[in-house]
Amino acid sequence: MNMIVAVDANWAIGNKNNLLVRIPADHKMFREETTGKVVVLGRKTLETFPGGQPLPNRENIILSANRSYEVKGAKVVHDIEELLTALKDYDDKDIYIIGGASVYKLMMPYVDTIHVTKIDHEYEADAYFPDLDSDPEWKITAESDEQVYFDITYTFVKYERI
User: Fold this and answer.
1) From its phi and psi, is residue 73 left (phi > 0), alpha (psi between -120 and 50) or beta?
2) Sign of dihedral through CA atoms 35, 38, 40, 41?
3) 8-66: per-residue pLDDT in tens?
4) Positive or negative torsion for Cα 148, 154, 121, 123
5) How many whole angstroms separate alpha carbon 140 and alpha carbon 114?
6) End-to-end CA distance of the chain
7) pLDDT tens across 115-146, in order?
8) Which DSSP category does 100 fall into?
């Protein structure tokens, strides 16, 4: 199973239910990586999408504790057991956990590959991803050359569980 995330220099991922920064090449990589696949996300993350709608050309699975929550065009599950049962229908390599922070934390034990866009900047933030560089369970297996968008430098890094 995969995770995909953009983090700043402090492993921050968001502030006030929004992304820290929007980088077109990061969005392109995200689309290329997840189109035609399964994306797992929380309700709050879904609500940040345009119109609060599921991502097109993907199987969207939304995790929400609210049992009456429904989303047209997506499957809604209410706890980890229900989510893991739903994911059994798919190939692990086609599953991408896309956020937010609580869903990342919940699903971390089940993931073996994490695609990280590492942004060389520190933003004001209130949501964080675990620091994979200080976790001995993870190693970098691929890294892009440094990219630049206006004054923001970033790299695409692939981590795999050892």
Assistant:
1) left
2) positive
3) 999 999 999 999 999 999 999 999 999 999 999 999 999 999 899 999 999 999 999 99
4) positive
5) 9
6) 14
7) 999 999 999 999 999 999 999 999 999 999 99
8) -
What range defines the domain where residue 63 resides? 2-161
Nearest CA to 116 out of 88, 139, 93 is that of 139
Look at residue 34 and give its three-state secondary structure. helix
Please state whether beta strands 18-19 and 12-15 pair in parallel, antiparallel, or not at all (unpaired): antiparallel
| Pair of tokens at residue 103 | 């869903």
Number of domains in the chain: 1
CATH number assigned to the domain comprising residue 125: 3.40.430.10
Helices (DSSP H) in 38-134: which residue ranges? 43-47, 80-87, 101-107
**In the numeric block, which tokens belong to residue 8?**
């700043």
CB 120 within 8 A of CB 152: yes
22 secondary structure, DSSP code: -
The reply to whether the predicted model has a pTM over 0.90 is: yes
Dihedral sign for Cα 123, 124, 127, 132, please.
positive
